Amino acid sequence: MIPTCGGGPVRLANTPLRRLAHAEYENTVRDLLGESPPAAVQRFPADPRVAGYDNSVNIAPTESLLEGYMESAETLAASIVAKLPNLLACNPQTAGEEACAGQFIRDFGRRAYRHPPDTEETAILMNVYRTGRGLTGADFSSAIRLVVTAILQAPQFLYRIEVGTGAAANGLKSLSDFEVASRLSYALWSTMPDEELFAAAAAGGLRTSQQVAAQAMRMLAHTKASQGLARFSSQWMPVADLATTAKDGQRFPAWNPTVAAALKQEMVALVEDVVRNGDRKFATLLTAPYSMLNGTLADYYGMPGAATGGSFRKVALDPARHAGVFTRAGFLGSQSMSDPDRPHAVRRGVFVRTHLLCQHMPPPPPEVAADFPEPQPNETLRQSLDRVTSAGACAGCHKMINPVGFGFEHFDADGRWRDQDAGKPIDASGELAGQDIFATDADGPYNGAAELAAKLAGSETAAACFARQYFTFTQGRPPESGDGCLLAGVHERAKAADYDVREMMLALASSPAFLQLATGDAP
Amino acid sequence: MNFLRWKPLSRRTILRGAFRGAALSVGLPILEAMQPRRASAQAARPRRFLGVFVPVGFSSTRADTEHTWNGPDKWTPQNTGKNWVMTPLLKPFEDVRDDISILTNLNFHAGGAHEGHASVLCAHDFIQTGGGMHAAAGGGRSVDQAMADQIGTGTKFKSLEVGAMAIGAYNQGYSMMISYTGARAGIRPQDNPMMVYSRLFADLSNGAGGSGGTQPDPAAQRLLAERRSVIDSVAANLALYKKRLGTRDGLRLDEHLSQIRAIERRVMSISGMTSGPGCRQPAQSSLGYRDETLTDKIVDVQRDFIMMALVCDLSRVITFVFGGSHYTGAYRHLPAPTWSTWSSYERHGMTHSCGGGADPRKECPVAMFETDMYNNKVMADFVRALKQTADGAGSLLDSTVMLGMTEVASGGGHNGGGSIWRGTTRTGRPTDSAWLIAGLPAAKGGVFQHGSHLRYKDGQTDQRQLQLALYEAVTGQSGAAARAWMPAGYSAAPLPGLRGDATTALMDFPNPV
Description:
The structure holds two protein chains of two kinds. Chain A has helices at residues 22-33, 63-80, 84-87, 92-95, 97-113, 119-134, 140-151, 155-158, 177-188, 195-202, 209-221, 224-236, 257-277, 282-287, 295-300, 329-334, 345-356, 381-389, 392-405, 449-457, 460-475, 484-496, 501-509, and strands at residues 18-19, 159-160, 165-169, 172-174, 290-293, 313-316, 336-338, 341-343, 420-421, 424-425, 429-432, 444-447, 516-518. By secondary structure, chain A is mainly alpha-helical. In chain B, the strands form six sheets. A seven-stranded mixed beta sheet of chain B has the order 8-12-4-15-16-5-17, sandwiched between helices. A two-stranded antiparallel ribbon of chain B has the order 1-11. Chain B has a two-stranded antiparallel ribbon with strand order 2-3. In chain B, helix 4 (218-244) packs antiparallel against helix 5 (247-268).
């Protein structure tokens, strides 16, 4: 659906307090301490994926998670004691221990809390310092270690707290300079601000859309934008968990964890190449006649020699068969059954509807089995699916789902090209068709995934959906009605730039709504 | 049983510190564990709860066979009461049949084909988190957590959540979580034995071989003081921002605070080793917890750890989640020939291949039956372990209520329980569910009468009443106080029949249609 505004205010709907997603936590730890995230991070209870993304606002803290934070904080704090001289701007012997601790809390606290600690926050940390210093056997560095342990478990570090400044008007407050900096860095980099961004915040240089746009432009050109984009692209095209997707070893002996990991990298690299090195167009994501392969994948795709070794390079593909993200084995392999391994036209069709067109597909109604049909002898999967779903309560939805998924029939459960199913030639003809809310500007017949991709590449609905997906990723929730005018503005700007992905990202990040905080508790 | 691996607990290993104010005193030589083993009259043992979850039901198609026993339902026994006839799937319980109660035809309130994990222990309706199938989260505090509020505050761990191969279906975060501290706040079970060991038992060996003096371990004492200081600062920061933020975000900070307090209570008082005979430090485990060929060994080790945690009174509320059905390959320890037609080893997939809507009478693959049998062995081994583990003058089974559960009665097509029929079977009957309870027998000072197959009348009772009945048995509470954790206004009685009480809620089976 195309977002519309109707003249209302451009604002972000009220969003609950968000804690750092684990990926953000890990990136932040790296940037803050120069340390790899400790093993404890692997034991954090996994962030559930909500609406496809791992950063849902609706996740409550649990004891096991906080215990993980404690373990991680203790490990990290111990590991930085050795580097303390580099972290300290003062010498405790000459400056005095208390004064030097205060200096450390100001400096390190500002980076960890992502704002300068105020009087009360400083007092809490000084208290930790003094307690730690007073323990038997303690010294200055052990007390600083304790301060770091406390900081890494503080809500100011673990959450992205936004209080705003000044009084609310029309349910909106201005974000503080440092809150804007955090919004930017987590939206674009999936990590904390760098020194330049902090400096801009400290100088009051993030108050206008122009100022924020300039920062966002700088940030999108920075190498850190890659990690933010990779996190988005690997969840948009659901390859993030590919490493744990197993296949029937007898039917797909080539599929293994190394290949699965490489397929995830391929998807990330392809999106990166289009958005950061290429023409940046949404359409190109869907139609690029090339991909990024390494030696493992060149072999996997049956193109030995097209790439060698571990690094990825651009490899041209047959445009009649392949187009952009859709025909990559990572995506196709993620949307298949594993029991037994068969390509899953239903899952693929539903994915296109929900993730590419942002349509809500209702779950199967009561009285309908979620079973996958057992093909009868000499029956292709396509035939057996049609046989089972073309009648009764199933037909209503499946006539919108199956013909979309059938476009991918040339791709087996491991995502590789095939010419036959059950000994018969593949029929990859399909149709995008729907009524009312399911109708789109891409509707019509096509043959094969490349043609489907081309249709979606020219669709305003699909381009608007891409922006919605990106919004969901950055905001930790799908858009709500209160976000309508913001989304409409982003869409207009992206449309004017022929759906340039960077324009879309900039439009969202530099929207006036990005500088404001909706107050009051949303329903 | 691997109890030969236990080694005696050394003296001087236990820090006992009253939290806040009281000085730490360490190495109290009061543990009977440190004394020569002796048979002594024990005070009444504390009551405990152990929940054992196996996923995706059993290869039966009860929703279609209805009242006929001759169908493919391999779980439901013929005859009710003590004279139930052994079924293929209940075979693993043969030697403990007098110690268990088999509950069938209990309605599964707010089940759902792929959401039942969020309702086995939760009385609140589940919440769809929007992450697709298997992504439902519990809608409120689960019964085990509510029990822990009552009986768990004096032990080192208020509750323990342990598992094996507890990986979410299709990587959905919630599907391996049955315990919830509140709405959406699922607790992921720890399925790495190495981590369970270090959390539960590692600190018991600190200073092993020491003189057993009365001097506190300075390093341990300092760590406690440090953690206390950090937790104080976290609480102060939370209070600071609670003032600055709105109500909703303040509630989240409150939840954070309450979880931090739970950790605090635990890390501050490394005590609770009040149990006597049998408390031993187990051997560490180095099993690769994702090694698919070791599934059975991982389950065995985790069960041993759980038993010792109960014996040592480290916790009185424990849940165990065997997550194998959603993990491709988790049954690879079973003999390979079984799997010839199902080389992907994924049980969840198998359950979708039979008994469903397209062909309800289609039998499940033999391989699925094999995995059913393993799932039931997991539950039966827990019953046996409880029964065989000495606890005071008796066994753990005397004082522990064990609940064996699965989220769908019939895995085939996911019928029954959390049913694809969502509320009623195709023939209009209410959803079914499969439960086992064991332990806390009346004959040993408990309350339950075991050995029977209890067949509940169609649609009259549901699992929330079972949860309530177990809650009352474990906590000793009743009336309104016992329902504080349940949805507001919930008023149904605790499930009748478990205590041998006369009830009209039960029926015969098979019975005339």
